[in-house]
């Protein structure tokens, strides 16, 4: 399932729309080069989930937990040296009760959940972003149908 | 003045295990162990490795600080520790160690805010901070403008980054330019031989619309992206990348926004002193531009020496000493490490302070 986003606001808006389909225990793996809009997409998710605290880059702290009706665990594996363990994320966070979003986590974090949604953000030559949702297991494909 | 408080400070919010000892405003010891080398070996930070490194370094670093200061744990009046914000597992090691030392030696404990500690460290070099003061805290993890009305308890965040921290942008741009981590020093060096006006990189959140909603906030993600695109276009065209010019122009954009917004905030709040802190405060361009712009407006800039700008235990001890002298109540032994401790909490009093606030 592919979408285009002409501006960073569009990227955020798509994150906000996806948020409506999320449930506890979900794992999202964000893939895209530096400056693609991974954090912007996560800001949209945060807005859609109605979580507290500003969603900013977690590169330095590795992970940040945003409390809310459905908490958002925002992880950045950019500085990580190896596969991510659940214990590394946050001692206060329960992955099973939250939505976990990981930037730079391709190949490192898929084992955190039985299924996950891959979100690929590619930048075209005209600066428009192509955002592709790739379901990996679970009922992701069915849920994405709701996005229309 | 031997009646000034003798305070031991412990800092473990990120990669550095820091233990500092101060008496009043006098620095007696500043011992540091870093796990950066270990991270380099793993090609990045491994949270478990970071926590373990803090654990292994803790007791020797405390001992080294005590030896340097020529005091014993029994002489210490209070123990201060960074309770947050930071890496949760890393913070936990420092907080647990501080509790153990406090309990064993029967001393009060102060769980303090990492950001306020970066401000407080300046007292060790330049004496008491005139209040109100404006704090500009820039590092790999933070970019915040703080209104310091009372360092012992009233610190307000006027603005902060809405995406990447300034130091993080330095690190990522350095990587694009093939420079080592941390990116601040190599970019600063390269910039000295470059033209800061060669490329007009964007100044985040300075447009009219942004200034309403994000007057004192920062954004460095767009700048980072602009640098990446610029380099990419050059490479695609088969032209060489003028590394020094890119470094200088990038650095100019970062420092321009930081100092411009800080100056606006100082004017609006009638503040005459700017305190620079955090690792990026070691940057030569940021120091020079701050001094130039603030002195032109008849204001002062205070910056600690580079070694005290980066994370260390002395800054935690300095804030602890200030709290003791101000008569602030110590923290409860049940305080947690709080990875998202809000700026407004200079120190924790009770373990459930965030719930009852």
TrEMBL record, chain A:
Transmembrane segments: none annotated. One of its GO terms (biological process) is tRNA threonylcarbamoyladenosine modification. One of its GO terms (molecular function) is ATP binding. Pfam families: TsaE. Keywords: ATP-binding, Cytoplasm, Magnesium, Metal-binding, Nucleotide-binding, tRNA processing. InterPro entries: P-loop_NTPase (IPR027417), T6A_TsaE (IPR003442). SUPFAM superfamilies: P-loop containing nucleoside triphosphate hydrolases. It comes from the Bacteria. GO terms for cellular component: cytoplasm. PANTHER family: TRNA THREONYLCARBAMOYLADENOSINE BIOSYNTHESIS PROTEIN TSAE. Required for the formation of a threonylcarbamoyl group on adenosine at position 37 (t(6)A37) in tRNAs that read codons beginning with adenine. Is involved in the transfer of the threonylcarbamoyl moiety of threonylcarbamoyl-AMP (TC-AMP) to the N6 group of A37, together with TsaD and TsaB. TsaE seems to play an indirect role in the t(6)A biosynthesis pathway, possibly in regulating the core enzymatic function of TsaD. The keyword Nucleotide-binding applies. Its main location: cytoplasm. This is tRNA threonylcarbamoyladenosine biosynthesis protein TsaE. It is found in: Cytoplasm. Belongs to the TsaE family. It comes from Actinorhabdospora filicis.
UniProtKB/TrEMBL annotation, chain B:
One of its GO terms (molecular function) is iron ion binding. Its EC number is 2.3.1.234. One of its GO terms (cellular component) is cytoplasm. Residues 27-317 form the Gcp-like domain. One of its GO terms (biological process) is tRNA threonylcarbamoyladenosine modification. It is found in: Cytoplasm. Binds 1 Fe(2+) ion per subunit. It comes from the Bacteria. Fe cation binds at residues 114, 118, 311. The keyword Transferase applies. Its cofactor is Fe(2+). Keywords: Acyltransferase, Cytoplasm, Iron, Metal-binding, Transferase, tRNA processing. Substrate binds at residues 137-141, 171, 184, 188, 283. It catalyses: L-threonylcarbamoyladenylate + adenosine(37) in tRNA = N(6)-L-threonylcarbamoyladenosine(37) in tRNA + AMP + H(+). The keyword Transmembrane helix does not apply. InterPro entries: ATPase_NBD, Gcp-like_dom, KAE1/TsaD, TsaD. Required for the formation of a threonylcarbamoyl group on adenosine at position 37 (t(6)A37) in tRNAs that read codons beginning with adenine. Is involved in the transfer of the threonylcarbamoyl moiety of threonylcarbamoyl-AMP (TC-AMP) to the N6 group of A37, together with TsaE and TsaB. TsaD likely plays a direct catalytic role in this reaction. Belongs to the KAE1 / TsaD family. This is tRNA N6-adenosine threonylcarbamoyltransferase. The gene is tsaD.
């Amino acid at each position: 399932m592919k979408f285009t986003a002409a501006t960073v606001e569009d990227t955020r808006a798509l994150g906000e729309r996806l948020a409506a389909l999320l449930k506890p225990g979900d794992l999202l793996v964000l893939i895209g080069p530096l400056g693609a809009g991974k954090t912007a997409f996560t800001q949209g998710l945060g807005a859609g989930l109605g979580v507290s605290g500003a969603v900013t880059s977690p590169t330095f702290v590795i992970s940040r937990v945003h409390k809310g009706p459905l908490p958002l665990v925002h992880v950045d594996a950019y500085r990580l040296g190896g596969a991510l363990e659940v214990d590394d994320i946050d001692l206060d966070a329960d992955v099973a009760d939250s939505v976990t979003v990981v930037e730079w986590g391709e190949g490192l974090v898929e084992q955190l959940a039985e299924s996950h949604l891959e979100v690929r953000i590619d930048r075209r030559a005209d600066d428009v972003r192509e955002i592709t949702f790739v379901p990996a297991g679970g009922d992701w494909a069915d849920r994405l149908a709701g996005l229309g | 003045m031997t009646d000034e408080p003798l305070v031991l400070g412990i800092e473990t919010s990120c990669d550095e295990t820091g233990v500092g000892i101060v008496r009043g405003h006098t620095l007696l010891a500043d011992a540091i162990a870093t796990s950066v080398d270990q991270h380099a070996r793993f090609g990045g930070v491994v949270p478990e490795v970071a926590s373990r490194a803090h654990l292994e370094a803790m007791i020797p670093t405390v001992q080294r600080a005590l030896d340097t200061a020529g005091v014993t744990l029994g002489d210490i009046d209070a123990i201060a520790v960074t309770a947050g914000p930071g890496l949760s597992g890393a913070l936990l090691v420092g907080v647990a160690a501080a509790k153990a030392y406090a309990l064993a030696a029967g001393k009060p404990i102060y769980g303090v805010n990492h950001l306020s500690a970066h401000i407080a460290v300046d007292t060790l070099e330049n004496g008491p901070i005139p209040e109100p003061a404006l704090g500009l805290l820039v590092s790999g993890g933070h970019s915040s403008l703080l209104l310091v009305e009372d360092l012992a308890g009233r610190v307000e965040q006027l603005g902060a980054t809405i995406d990447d921290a300034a130091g993080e942008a330095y690190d990522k741009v350095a990587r694009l330019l093939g420079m080592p981590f941390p990116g601040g020093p190599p970019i600063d060096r390269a910039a000295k031989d470059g033209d800061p006006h060669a490329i007009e990189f964007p100044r985040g959140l300075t447009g009219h619309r942004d200034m309403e909603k994000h007057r004192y906030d920062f954004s460095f993600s767009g700048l980072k992206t602009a640098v990446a695109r610029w380099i990419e276009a050059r490479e695609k065209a088969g032209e060489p990348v003028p590394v020094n010019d890119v470094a200088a122009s990038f650095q100019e954009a970062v420092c321009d926004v930081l100092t411009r917004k800080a100056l606006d905030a100082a004017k609006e709040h009638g503040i005459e002193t700017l305190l620079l802190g955090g690792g990026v405060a070691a940057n030569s361009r940021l120091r020079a531009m701050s001094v130039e712009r603030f002195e032109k407006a008849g204001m002062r800039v205070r910056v600690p020496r580079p070694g005290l700008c980066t994370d260390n235990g002395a800054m935690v001890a300095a804030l602890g000493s200030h709290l003791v002298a101000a008569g602030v109540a110590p923290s409860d032994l049940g305080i947690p490490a709080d990875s998202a401790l809000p700026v407004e909490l200079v120190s924790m009093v009770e373990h459930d302070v965030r719930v009852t606030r």
